[in-house]
Amino acid sequence: MKVLFPYMARWHAVNWTRYHSLIEALGKQGHEIHVLQPPAMKSDETNFIEIDSKEMPGVVLHDVPVSKFLWERKWPLDKIVKKAVYSIIAYKTAKKLVKEHGIDLLLLYNIPQYQYIHIKNVKIAFDFADDYVDMLKYELGRFALPPVLRLADVLLKRMMRKSSVVLSVSHELAKMAEGNVKVLANGVDTRFLKKQAANVPDKLTIGFIGSFEYFIDFELILNSAKLLSQHHFLLVGSGRQYQSLQSRIKEEGIHNIELTGGVPHDDIFMYIDKMDVCLNIFKKIPVSHRACPIKLFEYLSRCKPVISTRLDELAYIDKDSILYYADSPEELVNAINEINEDSGVIKRIDEGFDLVSKHYTWEHLSMDLIKSVE
After folding, report:
1. What fold does the segment set 190-359 form as a domain?
2. pTM
3. Could you tell me the CA-to-CA distances from 147 to 130, 150, 204 in Å, in that order?
């Protein structure tokens, strides 16, 4: 199958997404994927912080030219404006590639791509990977007026109805979707699965990986680090919250937190292996409850005990009580103590590894994507 994916970020950015994993898996299976990407940009957003490129079999990158005046200038609502401008300009390139390469499937994933649903002679899959209207509300800030959000919701629902299939990353998001809806969760690459014995020493390394963005509850993590001063906290990743978090750690003299900054995705697992306990901590807001965190499956794939915020979607994943839960620093301290004292921690870790191995690998999920389209 030949797939066209109009991406709205730099493909080799530090933010490794579900699309990188799905497309890498599709390429390995012999499919041909054409990825559109915007010009490079100076930004503290992980989608534009670029790292060394990684070649993917079957993947062809196409740079979409955008005038420097539009792209390098700072606009009000800069992120949203540039996504919209790029998507409009890339539309012509997408139409051309569909015709030239005989594209079978157009993979879309956000509201600024609305015009793409009018491209003829191609199947369309809409990937409903986030609560886009709720995220737009955050990005717009004081400009998040009810008419604007209603329009965004109308366009989103119309894109879904016009698509051949809607791939929802979670069951909670699927409740909001329209059209031919299939749940396609997140997962982990099989080459990173590592069955290993659990090790819970007296002095723990408590770790977090992910984007440093508004939906992560860093307040909970920082206050927990203060209460657990005898343990080491290892926070891996970068994003718009990184600088403020770094400053706060320094100002408050929190000496047991280590920040790595952004790292290549393949190195993530090296850092997870250094962790004794892993954190899946989010602010309890709609976008979090409807998420299916990739980090969760990556933690479990390396046989680590996981402490998570109580999120609605986890009810569909954690049916066998594999995870430990904490919504406050005090609960996180209790969860750490429970892990230290729990005779069943090995059983939880083994069940978590088996769950990921059987149901949440990108190889399995990418094949489900193709079956859903066909």
Report:
1. Rossmann fold (3.40.50)
2. 0.90
3. 21, 5, 50
